[in-house]
Amino acid sequence: MIEIRFHGRGGQGAVVASELLAQAAFLDGKHPQSFPFFGVERRGAPVTAFCRLDDRAVRLRTSITRPDIVVVLEPGLLRAGGVMDGLPPGGLLLVNSRDDPARLPAPPEVRRASVDATAIAVAHGLGTPMLPIVNTAVLGALAAASGAVRLDALERAIDRFVPARPAQNRAAARDGFGAVRLAPAEVAVRAPPVRAGRTLRAGLELPDGPLAVVSSATIATSAWRTMRPEIDLGRCTRCNFCWKFCPDDAIELNAEGYPVVRLEHCKGCGICAVECPPGTIAMVAEG
Amino acid sequence: MAQIVMSGNHAQSYAAMLARVQVIAAYPITPQTTIVEKLAEFVADGRLPAHYLQVESEHSALQSVVSASALGARTYTATSSQGLLLMHELLHWAAGLRVPVVMGVVNRAVAPPWSIGADYSDTIAQRDTGWIQFYAESNQEVLDTVLQCYRIAEDPAVRLPAMVTEDAFYLSHTVEPVDVPSSELVDAFLPAREARAVLVPGVPARLGSFTGPVEYVGFRHDVARAMDRVLPTLAAVEEDFARRTGRDHGGPLPTYRTEDADAVLVTMGTATTTARAVVDRLREEGHRVGLAKLRLFRPFPVEALRSLAASVDRIGVLDRSFTFGPTGAAAAEVRSALYAGSARPLVADFVAGIGGRDITPDLIARMYAVLDGPEPPDVTWMDLAAPEARADG
Predict the structure, then answer these.
(1) For B234-280, how does the pLDDT look when each residue is reduced to its tens digit (9 = 90+)?
(2) Which ipTM did the prediction report?
(3) What domains, with CATH codes, occur in chain B?
(4) Secondary structure of residue A178 in the 3-state scheme
(5) Is A176:A138 a contact under the CB 8 Å cutoff?
(6) Among candidates A26, A57, A194 on the partner chain, residue whose Cβ is nearest the Cβ of B5
(7) CATH number of A2-182
(8) Rounded Cα distance, B58 and B26, in Å
(9) A31, A57, B155, B238 — which has fewest CB within 10 A?
């Protein structure tokens, strides 16, 4: 049995990637099982999807904690923590990234591969340049890097199950297949420390009060953010509209009455930028 | 018979289409699922000639199919969590009016706090409404059980509504291969409903009028007796289904490796698949363990449990909800069934997987270990501790 875990953000197509892989593997004669996990159905929120491929009916109905392969649809998620959990020596890490795979952080003895699926998706007009849908390009790369599925089965699955732009998606899969880069095995880069507090730690760490007071510091909605607000204080009129409209109380007013964004509570919705009367707030892409 | 890789939600939709349902009513907003989305697609593209009613709440959804069913139509609706709670009043109406509505439910935790994870709180809270309740383990079982439910619910000896439930994510969003029977096969297994219409268009009549205590007792007793007839009806229906499809889901309480077991875990839904693999592992290590799956919760399979208990020392029950009584609901039912029987093994409750918490092989192995220990507690909450610290590589 091969266990593959996908990490993406809501809207990027991680769930569909895992399902398409299952469909393609089924056409290849495998017995697949695929399911996602997401806490909230929001664009930008981290999404995990699990795919098992076996020669017989899968006998586990539980999430994948010891993946053979981890596929990351956006390099920013490598910082989020949890992505490489359980990835053993000899496992494969495939990241949608412009970077040389040898520079990817990974646990020891994990094979690393990268593919610039964003560029491929944009070139084929899949999604928008701001939120390209990279899943088919990544699956093509996965076929090349792992052999978990054959490219022609993947293309047949795209034809049958991708309702929008099947030809462009097929081309993206072929480009991903050709463009994947594998790092030499011997170079090891340590993964950065994970950011704590992404998951609600049930039981022991719950507050004494009603659960409704659990804040976005505990359930890190800031991990959903793909854009952050930057305020040009030189033009700020201290009207406090941003402070009033922020749905998460992520904006505080300092002693002089100027707004200060507390990024640990900001999910990047952009409402402040829309509401600011003098237009002093710009939404800037997260690195 | 074609194999299609599909989700548990779509297994519900395909089953409803194959059953040639005539009226579907659904509230299309959260917490609705892709079950009715797919059915809307089937109706829109002409594959399913049914009336599709988009209503303004789950309460109205169930009211609509109850009325249509009283007119003799074959009906279907689906919901989940808070939506099922909003239907509660009409659940009683459906059973009391003896209409054979079939409903798909995605088992999800109820708020607060908000959660969309697998949990049986929503349907367990409806166990006292007079509905037949099946808990499915695989997408195949979802599809097959929906078809079987129409036969059971519409049987003149039963005439009760039925729900087929599936675990959120672990079935609802899981795609896996499903054998989809041909429409010829299903038509032969499940002919059109023999309309025993209580209401007839053009003939003024009403349902649900006032009764005195004497009549009321009679009606309630009728529902209880109808519930008693579900088990023999299920046996006959399942035999016919197996003859036509080659698939047998094992009745109300299928067992696994219980023949010489000292300890048996009673599971429901998807935890069963994982538990079966754990039983094999523990057997290899020399432990005499087995499992039994509560496929049917209403009516409760009392006799099957008693015959299982005759040869077992200890029974663990996995409760994927907690009902704030002495134990969870499934353990309470198991104990109640066994108390008046001749064998009374120890019964220990394990609360696990609530709010969508993962039920892992290790967690199940720990349940067997507690069950095998010196004094298993009445109730053990299995996954209170924080998740294991993440390795940072």
Answers:
(1) 999 999 999 999 999 999 999 999 999 999 999 999 999 999 999 99
(2) 0.90
(3) 2-245 (3.40.50.970), 255-381 (3.40.50.920)
(4) helix
(5) yes
(6) A26
(7) 3.40.920.10
(8) 7
(9) A57
